[in-house]
Structures are given as C-alpha cells and as structure tokens.
Amino acid sequence: MGGVPLNTLSLRLKNTRTKEVWTAEFDTTVVRLWDPQKREVLMVPREHVAQYLRLQRDLFRGWIVTFAVLEGVKSHSFYLGRGDLVRLMTCMPRKSPGEARKEVRLQAVALGLSGILFLVLPDVFWWMWGAALLGSGAVGLVYPHRGVYSLNAPLLFFAGVYQLFVGGAGASGPGINTMALLSTVVGIMFVCWSVQQLAMLSPNAQIRVARLRENREAVTAGGSSRLVRAVAWCSIVVFGGLWAYSILLAYLVWTGRAAQPATASVGRISLTSLDFVACPVLGTLSLLTGMVLLFRKKTAYLEAKITGQMLVSVALVAFWGAVTGIAAREELLGHLFAWGLATFMQPYAWLSLVAAVLIFNRWYGRALDRELETNFE
After folding, report:
1. Per-residue pLDDT tens over the stretch 147-172
2. pTM, two decimal places
3. Do the beta carbons of residue 218 and residue 303 sit within 8 Å?
4. Quick check: helix, strand or coil at residue 139?
5. How far apart are CA 274 and CA 27, in angstroms?
6. Which pLDDT tens digit goes with each residue over 67-89?
C-alpha cells in the first residue's frame, strides 16, 4: 500500500444498513480511501486533503465526512465517531504555534479591555462580570492555547445575556436612555462574540484554515476574491444610500420641514440631530471600508466578514426604525435611526439582530468555502 500509514480510520457508509467497513489511510504523502473489498477508490495528495473533505453535523448521527474529488463526480459520505473526528483533525494542516498563540493573546487582550470597561462603568455593568472578564483575559495571556476559547464562550454568552435582560432593566424616562442602550449594544456584541469563540473550536474552522493555506494565490493576489468584492460593493451602495438620506435630511432641516417626534432625545442630542450626525458618519465609514476591501493587496476575508456584520446591523436598525415609526404614526424622515436605536432595547429587536448576524456568519463561511474550492480547482 506504499508507505507507513500515520493514521487509519474505519468508516461506516452513510445511508446504508450494511455493516461493511471502508478505510481511510493517511500516509506521509497521500490519502487513500479503500472500499470493503480493499479496492482503492480515491487517492489525493495529503497536503491538499482539506480541499476534498466536507464536514457537516447531523443532530442525531453526529459528524459526517464526505470525500469529493470533483464537482459532479460521485462522492462518498461516512459517519464519524468522536475518536475518528479527533484522528481526522490531527491529519489536517494547522496554524503554526506562533500564529495560534498570537491569535489567543489578541482575544485575551480584547477580553481584558472589556473587563476594564465593565469596572469603569459600574452604573451600567456588574463589576463581577468585569472581574471575570479580566481573569479570563489573564488566563489567555498566560496560557495561550485554543482551549481557552471553551472558557471564553460561556462567560461571554452569560455576560451578554445578563446585560440584555438585566443591565438596562432600570432604564426609564423620556427619549432613549443612553446607559440602557450601551448595555444592550454590549450584550448583543458579547452573545455574537461567544458564538464566534465556539466556532473557532469547530472542526470546520480548522479545515478552512488548511484550505486558506493551500490557496496562497487567493489570499495574496489583490482583487482575486469575488466574495470580498461583493461585500465591498454592498458597503459602497450603503454609503450612497446613507449620504442621499443625509442630503435629504439636511434640506428638510434647512427648510424647517423636519418634524419633531414624540420622544425627546438621546442624552442631550435631539433625535433629528442624531440621524443628521449618524448617517454621514456611517456612510463615510462604509465608503472607506469598501475602498479598503477593493484595493487592499492582501485579500481581506476577515475584514469583509466584519464589514458584512456592520452592514447587517445598520440595515436592521433602519428596518426597526421604520417599523416603530410607522406603528407610532410618526414622521420617519429625520428619525429613522433614532427610532431604531430606541427599539433595540426591546428583546424582539436585539434577538433579530443576533439571529441575522449568525445567519450571515453561516452564509459567509459557506460562501468562503465554495470560493476556496473554486480557486483550488
């Protein structure tokens, strides 16, 4: 069979009642798939094996691995036991120890800064969460291992849920309570961040890292990514929409036609002024991020994902602002984002944002996988 196998998996074919066992053999240079009759069905270079694997999770059967060489050619899917999954992951290319430590420490610094924010603003955040975040950040700095993500994820999730349900519970009075709004925004960010921490432990995350390493051209050639360009153009379109709205709003204010809504202000800022200030700033930020994504020499997959999340958030704030304003029979022009921010202190609004960001992340991950597969082929 050529070479000494480093690892061998005994696999059971998906959607079959037979107990026949297939074998996946990882040699030093190639990966071979053998059928129950010991016939070689597939052979691919080990350094490119991530390009031919598909992993998906079945809620009832566990993980399923699919070996697929070319689009349209018959693929083979198998159930994976927990031990098989661990052995399979050991055969995948990984980040270098230095890169992995740097990534963990960056996350630890972010956690520590979040903890300081909690301690500095005791009227908004519970100090115990701040101490826990600082402790988790310290663990990540002292012990920079991927395993700390399993500690960070539940901590961020429960801290985020606490801020969403308890942090702004005491908010009252006219207008938008800025402290309650800050608590809600941080809660949303923490819940999404906790999901991202869990995703970094997922087997698919490791396979995606391997694919990126095998697609050096896609990562280093500027403008080579259709996915990044699509996000960039969406960002530029949002810039156009926000600035058009800003110009219209400036005309309404100048002519004295901008109506004042029932709610008063965000702190000392009038609701009309809030839209007037926020839209040009968000529009300019959208333009800058779009231009960076289009012209950066290194394909910016991570930056495009963050930009997409920002665009989803802006769209939902505008959506809930329109819904709330229409329901209250208030004038929308000049108050769209103000109404949206006010609504985001309600569970149905921030839950929709969390769901939308998670759906976007899932779509983006699959689109990235398809692009890397296409680039490799």
Report:
1. 888 888 899 989 888 887 776 544 44
2. 0.64
3. no
4. helix
5. 62
6. 766 555 567 777 777 777 777 77
